[in-house]
Amino acid sequence: NVTFHTSTHPSDTTVALTALTANGVIFVTNGNLHVSGTVNGQVDVGAGGTTSSDGNVYIDGNVLCNTNPQTNPMSTDAIGIVAQNNITVESDNSFQGINPPDPPVDPTIQAAMFAQNGQFSGYYQAYNSAYRNLGAIHVYGSITNYSVGATSDPTITYGYNANYKFDPRYATMHPPDFPETGQLQILSWYE
What we know:
Layout: E1 2-4, E2 13-15, H1 17-20, E3 25-29, E4 33-39, E5 42-48, E6 57-65, E7 78-83, E8 87-89, E9 108-109, E10 112-115, E11 120-121, E12 136-145, E13 161-166
Parallel strand pairs: 3-5, 4-6, 5-7, 6-8, 7-10, 8-11, 9-12, 10-12, 12-13
Antiparallel strand pairs: 1-2
């Protein structure tokens, strides 16, 4: 099931994933996407747009596979998160009238993530002294980004620590329609 709301439909609506998409892909055009929750199956979510304020994905809490791939490497659940710009771990509930938003503490993300023109980073306001001891961002998946984003300040007083581990399943499989290069072949190398 997927629970969603939009600026034109502000009430939460829950429907089966198959009611939104037959191929497991959910994409927001000229907007941003907020995600959290548990996936049973395979899904690829993303956002794109024509301006730098569009095409961002905000991770508001845990993003988990129903069958944990870290403890069960045979899990067939897979999550892809694709952003034309940035993927940011934060809880920006301002669009729901909640102010100030609180960032998630110790979030776990079990997904393959791709920030095409931006970065994957921790809470962008994490340097605010109100947000000490946010724990760590636990990623079990993959991260591909154009540039590297911050998760904490140099003293690790504010923001998050980083705990990133590659999910080896993504060496041979991927979420539906997740960007990939296909098979690579080494033609030569120099030493």
